[in-house]
Amino acid sequence: MSEAPRTQYETILYDKKGSRATITLNRPERRNATTSQMYEEVLAAAQAAEHDSDVRVVILTGGGTAFCAGQDNSVTSQHGSVEYARYDEVNRMVHAFLRGMSKPVVARVNGPAAGGGCLLALTTADIVVASTAARFALREVAAGLSGPVRLLYSAGRPRALFMAMTGAWVSAEQAEQWGLIYKCTTPEQLDAEVDAVARLLEDLPPLGVAATKEKMAFALSLLNMEAVIDYGFRQDLFLHTTSDRKEAQRAFLEKRKPEFHGR
User: Is 252 exposed, middle or buried (0-12, 13-18, 19+ CB in 10 A)?
Assistant: First the structure.
């Protein structure tokens, strides 16, 4: 058995109680916006949970009032190509590991989930329970990058393109109607609903749960989801060098409307 002490981390919390491990994105002052360090710490915590024979379920949530605001533009706007490639690489590693680990991952979406945070919940976690205070958006195009199309595999082409191209916010209620999440509930009932799902999973044979998750991963591999992710990764490495990308990040940080020129 292995266990990761909380003191090991600066941007997340890792807590284990019985057969349940909770990973909390813990930069509430930045609405849990992601950095390379945060992704590295999430990966380390997820690996600790995977290798801990006592853990049956992993809960992924956000500290404060947000689930995750996506990448921290105040940090990535300072990245050159090498640093941004590293950010993208560890980003992909986290998503791939959480999707592929044998333990089920339940997203407790307590508030807004944007960009990479939206993807963590809607395309990476296995089961999503969201508060009515939550909403979802893919903001990458507005930030000068390419819109992720991974929701094609769950929402279908029209809705996936709408979210990826427009960056529009989708409420938790709408996400439930679209089949993007398992359940939407009130903020007061969120913990009880997450606990109910976790208890169901904890009481099941772990090998059967792991095999079911593995089968889903195999199905997605036949649909070449990783190839789609890799294609987007290469697009974004180029787009990060463009003037529109720099303008999008400056405008976001300066809280003004950006001016794009297609270069």
Answer: middle
Residue showing tokens 């995750």: 68
> What whole-number distance in Å separates Cα of residue 158 and Cα of residue 102?
32
Judge whether residue 47 has pLDDT over 70. Answer: yes
**What's the CA gap between 52 and 181, in Å, rounded?**
27
Place of tokens 């533009």: 73
4 has pLDDT over 80: no
Is residue 192 one of the residues assigned to a domain?
no
Domain count, the chain: 1
User: For 216-223, which contacts have Cβ atoms below 8 Å and span 24 or more sequence positions?
Assistant: 216/126, 217/99, 217/100, 220/99, 220/153, 223/153
Exposed (0-12), middle (13-18) or buried (19+): which is 59, by Cβ within 10 Å?
Answer: buried
Supply 109's token pair: 């979406």
Whether the predicted model's global pTM rises above the 0.70 cut = yes
Would 1 be classed as within a structural domain?
A: no
